[in-house]
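[SOLVED] Need 3D model of a two-part complex

Original post:
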Amino acid sequence: MVRKLCFLTSTLGMKYLMGASGLIWVGFVMAHMLGNLLLFVSAEAYNVYGHNLTSGNIIYLVEGALIFSLSAHVIQGILLTLKNRKAKGTQYHVQAAGNKKTPWASRTMIFHGTIILFFVIYHLITFKFGTYYSVIINGTEMRDLYRLVVEVFSNPVYVVGYAICLLLLTAHLSHGVASMFQSFGFNNRAHDKKIRMVGLVYAFIVGGGFLIQPIYVYFLN
Amino acid sequence: MASTKAKILNLVLKVWRQSGPKSEGKFVEYPAKGISTDASFLEMLDAVNEHIIADGGDPIVFDHDCREGICGSCGFMIDGQAHGPLRSTTVCQLHMRHFNDGDKIVLEPWRAQSFPIIKDLMVDRTALDRVVSSGGYVSVNTGCAQDGNSIPIRKRDADEAFEAATCIGCGACVASCKNASAMLFTGAKVSHLALLPQGQIEREERVLNMVAQMDKEGFGACSNTGACSASCPKDIDLTTIARLNREFVKATVNKHNTDQKLGDG
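Solution:
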């Protein structure tokens, strides 16, 4: 006799959904970071890239998928945190130290996750819905996003704020990427260390790749 | 027989005292004087209790049985660490030589909503028994011991099944987990039977039922912090949780397909 259990509302299913919705953003942040590296090529390359990306209908599909997966990730994150806090009940008087201590990033996912969420919203307000400067490249009128980027990152407050948020994103990914494999069940003893390494390297490539951009723009000017 | 290197320690214990499941608890400090470094942690507590009893007080209640590190009865938090500071050790096998003279040691019971406190440092862990009885068994009669190698089992599977089977069900994984998740425990039980031939018949039913029971008991989800495995006196590997996830997805998909076929027929 098998008991009735809904996959998606089970503890394991919730983590599966958490990983699946996170996976879409794991891919997105890498693509976003790589595309933005055109900043180092030229203002023209950067603007043309942005223009090509947003002209066409496929962008709406991608944006839809991103909004959907982020919402699922946030909702699952909140539900899991509430469930886990209820399961724990009382906290310990003393926290584990020494060789039974756990990695900081793994304990604080909801904390950096929340900050990253607000950062994403603020980031969209600053750039996507920010000042519209116009430029004509090869006879085509397009948005001069490069000018906005240079303008925003000439302010040291923005640079420092971005750096902090990007470090938290690195921490989030350093735990999240490897944990996704674990939640999906794609982990075993032979590959455990390699998967953790892949997660760490991925986090540092994305975080580092993003981080050098505001710093470069700030010191360039 | 005391070793010649034994030293004497004077300690202070800060112990969680709670007279019953519903009563309010609080920390109380007790001196632990003249403790030999050769004593085990539980022997040290026995000595402290002798003094408390002599003074007409109520001794500190803690769970214990074999005191050999194999039964899974003992366990509480020592300075925020399940079974104390040493890895791969139950609290009964932890010795006082790992502490220093003058140390103040904080003792707390396992904390989890699914582990109600019975008294002081003793908690009710029958939630784990109910998880096991929901599927952690085989219903085939395997008879007497087989001739060696009459049923070939891959060496790696045999080793991993055996390692998973060393789980003594002490509950340190649940206690050390910030989410009070029982996934290392359930993962060990599922791994142990899923890797062996006699566990195949109920393989899918087992994982579905054990996860259902685990959720019903109110245990939390896995955040993959690794606290459980670090606290496990038997070093159950974190990858047993990945196997639990894998088995659960496979069983869910197969059950869905079977249900549909039955529905069509």
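Edit: The helical segments of chain B are 41-54, 126-133, 155-165, 172-176, 183-194, 203-216, 227-231, 239-264.
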